[in-house]
Write a structure and sequence with these properties.
Elements (H helix, E strand, L loop, with lengths): L1 E6 L4 E8 L2 E9 L11 H23 L8 E7 L3 H18 L3 E5 H7 L15 E6 L4 E8 L2 E7 L5 H11 L7 H8 L22 H17 L3 H32 L3 E5 L6 H14 L2 E3 L11 H13 L16
Parallel strand pairs: 1-4, 4-5, 6-9, 9-10
Antiparallel strand pairs: 1-2, 2-3, 6-7, 7-8
Helix pairs in contact: 1-2, 3-9, 4-6, 5-7, 7-8
This protein binds adenosine-5'-triphosphate and fe (iii) ion.
Fe (iii) ion binds next to helix 3.
Keywords: Acyltransferase, Cytoplasm, Iron, Metal-binding, Transferase, tRNA processing
InterPro entries: ATPase_NBD, Gcp-like_dom, KAE1/TsaD, Peptidase_M22_CS, TsaD
Catalytic activity: L-threonylcarbamoyladenylate + adenosine(37) in tRNA = N(6)-L-threonylcarbamoyladenosine(37) in tRNA + AMP + H(+)
């Protein structure tokens, strides 16, 4: 079974061909234009998707060594995401499926970040059900109880900023480029995590809050700069390490609570922030300290990609779970 997956929820245009569980191609066109604005500009994103979508799909088919007539179904991201971006992928997928007279499969982007773990990949184990999925990305921070592929419940999520935003907004305060997550991570590994202390937000239960941290960092920097204008440059690695230490603490506290409440010790992470070295190390430590088994997908399947859309397409195809032809994009689609 050959499935084409199409992803266009934010600023990356991506297409992937999957043959049964195995990825044959995974093409992605990044939109560099947003870096100059320090964040994604929706209007520019949808325009770039419009330019990229045909060449990206074409390349995905070529790399897979098939033609569009070989496809059995088209899977696309229905939401959540930016409406203008989603519309490009949705309309394209609908037209292509209609033209080829094959099934159309709608995919929830956040489910896909979790189900990326079910891509067949040498050296990567698939989590057994039930497991806890944690999606940590630029737009989301969720803990999801996963009982089966399409039987998932969000048991905790952020009430304000996403974890990736916490990184990016902290980076902005420090004068770093966008997105700042990777650089803060790199510098954190060279600094002292206990150099500065930022208090963790008090949020009951399994929900998260990250907006207070950003404000705490802002006030802290403003205060220090008064007595030492070079404070940031002189202490940048220590500041990054301290921010990272605080964020990891928040994540691990919530995972501990989720594992305790559900009795589930299999933990699978996804989303762009899963690249974070500190979070990866803390999860590994959790294996010894708390008896967890943790799962981290291959890097290219953690940030936005179409392979994760294709694998969900394949899993839905096996169940005969297809979209109707009048399906529409949904910016706030829930799990
Ligand atoms: P969503 O899936 O919620 O719509 P998104 O797809 O835009 O959001 P991703 O592409 O999954 O988000 O992740 C991007 C985020 O990951 C950015 O905020 C970026 O700073 C962050 N990030 C990437 N690498 C790292 C890292 N090593 N450490 C911390 N953050 C990182
Ligand atoms: Fe994403």
């Amino acid at each position: 079974i050959y499935i084409l997956g199409i992803e266009s929820s934010c600023d990356d245009t991506a297409a992937s061909v999957i043959h049964n569980g195995k990825i044959l191609s995974n093409v992605i066109a990044n939109q560099k234009i947003h870096e100059a604005y320090g964040g994604v500009v929706p209007e520019l994103a949808s325009r770039a998707h419009q330019q990229n979508i045909v060449p990206v799909v074409d390349q995905a088919l070529k790399q897979a060594g098939i033609t569009k007539e070989d496809l059995h179904a088209i899977a696309f991201t229905r939401g959540p995401g930016l409406m203008g971006s989603l519309l490009v992928g949705t309309s394209f997928a609908k037209s292509l499926a209609y033209g080829l007279n094959i099934p159309l499969i709608d995919v929830n982007h956040m489910q896909a970040h979790i189900l990326a773990h079910f891509i067949d990949e040498d050296g990567f184990e698939k989590p057994p059900f039930p497991f806890l999925g944690m999606t940590i990305s630029g737009g989301h921070t969720q803990i999801v109880k996963v009982d089966n592929y399409f039987d998932m419940d969000v048991i905790g999520e952020t009430i304000d900023d996403a974890i990736g935003e916490a990184y990016d907004k902290s980076g902005k305060i420090l004068g770093l480029g966008y997105p700042a997550g990777p650089e803060i991570d790199k510098r954190a590994q060279l600094g002292n995590p206990k150099a500065f202390k930022f208090t963790k937000p008090k949020v009951d239960g399994l929900n998260f809050s990250f907006s207070g941290l950003k404000t705490a960092i802002l006030y802290f920097i403003q205060k220090e700069i008064k007595s030492n204008p070079n404070f940031i440059s002189e202490h940048l690695n220590d500041i990054c390490a301290s921010i990272q230490y605080t964020i990891i603490g928040i994540v691990i506290d919530k995972l501990k609570l989720a594992a305790k409440q559900t009795g589930i010790k299999h933990i699978a992470i996804g989303g762009g922030v899963s690249a974070n070295s500190g979070i990866r190390n803390a999860l590994k430590e959790g294996e010894n300290k708390f008896g967890w088994t943790t799962y981290v997908p291959k890097f290219e399947f953690t940030t936005d990609n179409a392979a994760m859309i294709a694998i969900v397409g394949y899993l839905k195809y096996l169940e005969g779970n297809f979209a109707k032809q009048d399906v529409t994009a949904s910016a706030r689609l829930k799990i």
